[in-house]
Amino acid sequence: MAIVQVTIVPLGTGSTSVSDYVASVERVLSEAPESIKHQLTPMSTIIEGELDDILAVIRRMHEVPFREGAKRVSTSITIDDRRDKVGTMAQKMDSVAEKLKDQHERT
C-alpha cells in the first residue's frame, strides 16, 4: 500500500486563481474506478492505495488542466511506499497523535 502526495499546478492560464482547476481534478479523483482513498488539503491531495492504481489516476488528473485550457502543467508527486507493513493515512495520523499524547503526559 502506498500513500502519495500530488500537487497539480496549471500554468499559462491568465489568472492566479486555480480553484476551478482543483475542483475539476478532484472530480476525476472522486470518480476514479480504482480502489483508492484520498484527502484534499489546502496545498495538495493525499491518495492511498496500490501504487499502480494511484499512478494511473494521477495520469488522468494531470490531463485535466490541459483540457480546460492550461498551456502548461506542473505535477509534483511524493511517494511513501512502505513494504514491511501496511501503512494508511489514518494509521500515520494516529501514530503522531499517540506520540503527542505521550509527550503531553510526560510534561
Automatic annotation (TrEMBL):
Domain Thiamine-binding protein as annotated: residue spans: 4-96
Entry's Gene Ontology cellular component terms: cytosol
Highest taxon of the lineage: Bacteria
Family membership noted in the UniProt record: Belongs to the UPF0045 family.
PANTHER family per the UniProt record, alphabetical: UPF0045 PROTEIN ECM15 (PTHR33777:SF1)
Name of this protein: MTH1187 family thiamine-binding protein
Species whose genome carries this gene: Cohnella nanjingensis
